[in-house]
Amino acid sequence: MDYFAGLDVSVKDTSVCIVDSTGKIVREVKVASEPDALLAVLRNPAYDFKRIGLEAGPLSQWLFSALAEAELPAGGSEESCLRLQAYWTGSWTAVAMAVQCARGSRVAGNLC
C-alpha cells in the first residue's frame, strides 16, 4: 500500500501525519525539528511513501535536504497542494497536508 506524510514544521517541533492511499490516518506524532528525529519516523519499513509534503519555512531547506539524501520522496507544499489545501481547510496542518497529498495523488497524479 502507498503511504503519504505531511510535515507541519516549526522551529522546535514538527508534527508528522501519515495516511494510507485512502486518506485514513495511520500515525500522528510530534518530533524535534531535526533530520535524525524525522528520519526515525519516516524510514520505518512499514511505510512505502509515495510522497512527503513538507511545509515551507525557515527549516524547510535543511530538512528537505536530509530527506532527499535519505532518498525519501519529499516535496514542498507550495504549488498545487497549496491550492488544494487552502480549499480543503484554509490552514496548514500535518494532517491536512498528508491527506491532501494522498487525495491529490490518487486523483490526478503526484500533485504534492
Note down, in words, how this protein is organized.
The chain is of the alpha/beta class. It is built from four helices and five strands; from the N terminus they run βββαβαβαα. The chain has a five-stranded mixed beta sheet with strand order 3-2-1-4-5. The relative contact order is 0.25. Residues 78-89 and 106-112 have low confidence and may be disordered.
- Give me the CATH fold name: Nucleotidyltransferase, domain 5
Kindly estimate the percentage of residues that lie in beta strands according to DSSP: 25-35%
Uncertain runs are 78-89, 106-112
Q: What is the CATH C-level name?
A: Alpha Beta
Output the number of helix runs: 4
Largest sheet: 5 strands, mixed
- Relative helix content: 25-40%
User: What is the strand arrangement across the widest sheet?
Assistant: 3-2-1-4-5
> What count of structural domains?
1
Q: Report, as a whole number of angstroms, the end-to-end distance.
A: 18 Å
Tell me which CATH architecture applies here: 2-Layer Sandwich
**How many distinct beta strands?**
5
User: What's the Cα radius of gyration?
Assistant: 12 Å
| Overall pLDDT score | 77
Question: CATH-wise, what's the superfamily?
Answer: ATPase, nucleotide binding domain
Query: In one word, what is the shape?
Result: globular
